Amino acid sequence: MRVVVAPARFQGSLGAGQAAAAIETGLRRARPDAEVVRVPVGDGGPGTLEAVLAAGFERLPVAATGPTGEPVAAAVAVDGARAFVEPAQASGLERLPGGRPGPLGATTRGTGELLRAVLDLGARQVVVGTGGGAASDGGAGMAAALGVRLLDRDGAELPPGGAALLRLARVDRSGLDRRLGAVRVTVAYDEDIPLVGPEGTAQAARRAGAGPDDVLLLDSALRRYARVLADDLGLELAATPGAGAGGGLGAGAVAFLGAELRPGAEVMLELVGFERALDGADLVVTGEARLDARSLGGGAPLGVARAAAGHGVPVVALAGAVEVADRELRAAGFEEGHALLELEPDPDRALAEAGPLLERLAERVGRAWASLP
Q1: How far is the C-alpha of 269 from the C-alpha of 277, rounded, in Å?
Q2: What are the backbone dihedrals phi and psi of residue 139, each rounded to the nearest 5 degrees, phi first?
Q3: HSE-up of 321 (CA within 13 Å, CB side)?
């Protein structure tokens, strides 16, 4: 019996690698003879760096600017000419001092510094994730760190943050790092949202602490940003799916890095070599903290299920909580889904004991699928 174990992180409790180890432990209790291949996965958001490192990339530390200007210790993943940059490492919510949100003034400058670091290392193929960001600046801070000047009507450079884009008059790319011309950049977006509008970046900024007035201001500022990008660069990005991901980082990456926008799970599965791991597999076990409607809209487990379907391999999902019906799971490509809450109904205890509970749940799966070769 060959089982591919490919979970994403269980937010708040287990990293993707820890979850994979717990699942393997449980499976082996039921099937000591099983061949287990661990392939932790992600969708480009927080925790994806760990999955990429588990696939053999090297972790390299980088000192960067945090979302509100403070220095932070971040990291990138490199494998020869390939590199992965997780924006949350420098510009994420978890980097906010004291956890205090600053949605109007937060910057993605640190993400640009991570990109500059992988250019220094000779990267020629760079994947940039999204998700978990504290900033909604359309990637303006990232661009500034790479030499772009964002100017007001008087020719002065704008201060950091999405709100400042309301005063944007023009962009000057003359100082943009020339090495980017020889680099292929792919943005692995976790949400296919547009830059502006009722489903766009500003609305998503609520998760970063934006209130109703902040949302209105940010949407107006990002509309201004989109108009200037259209006028100065000839790029119509306001309604492009994925351009609004990562606080609008997708739009900035297209405008200034020449990036391609692609669904995050799809890109990350390619990066960690998931298709190769499926060869000869009898079963795939995936999972994440919460399996809900959003998961079925494009999360990492869904990407796993779709890839496995192409090889005719059944997929079982394990999660902290399963909030979709069995028929919805089956329609999405999962044979079944099980929750830690089946073993421990108290959510706080389930979170605190996620590792042992996940082992027990995986053991159940191993016994239920014991009829496999």
Answers
A1: 10
A2: 80, 15
A3: 14
CB 41, CB 7: distance < 8 Å? yes
What residues have CB less than 8 Å from 109, skipping those under 6 apart? 65, 91, 141, 142, 144, 145, 160
Alpha helices in 16-160 (DSSP H): 16-30, 48-54, 88-91, 109-120, 140-145
How many CB atoms are located within 10 Å of the residue 351 CB? 18
| pLDDT category of residue 246 using cuts at 50, 70 and 90 | very high
What is the model's pTM? Answer: 0.91
For 310-353, write each residue's pLDDT tens digit: 999 999 999 999 999 999 999 999 999 999 999 999 999 999 99
Query: Residue 156 is inside which H or E element, if any?
Result: none
Q: Residue 131 — very low, low, confident or very high, per pLDDT cuts 50/70/90?
A: confident
Rounded Cα distance between 35 and 12, Å, is: 29
- In order of 3, 20, 106, 187, 300, the CA distances from 7 in angstroms are 12, 6, 31, 21, 8
In order of 112, 148, 233, 247, the CA distances from 176 in angstroms are: 11, 5, 14, 21
289: tokens are 């903290």
Residue 92: phi and psi, rounded to 5, are -90, 165
| Residue indicated by tokens 């760190």 | 145
From 224, 116, 232, select the one nearest 172 (Cα to Cα): 232
Q: How far apart are CA 13 and CA 341, in angstroms?
A: 14
DSSP 67: T
| Cβ-Cβ contacts under 8 Å for 62 (sequence gap 6 or more) | 74, 75, 76, 89, 90, 113, 114, 117
Residues 6+ apart with CB under 8 A from 367: 30
pLDDT of residue 324: 93
**Residues 6+ away with beta carbon under 8 Å from 98:** none
Nearest to 274 by CA among 75, 8, 79, 35: 8
212 CB burial (10 A radius; 0-12, 13-18, 19+) = exposed
Sequence-separated (6 or more) residues with CB below 8 Å from residue 178 = none
| Residue owning tokens 């932790």 | 40
| 73-93: burial string, b at 16+ Cβ within 10 Å, e else | ebbbbbbeebbbbbbbbbbbb
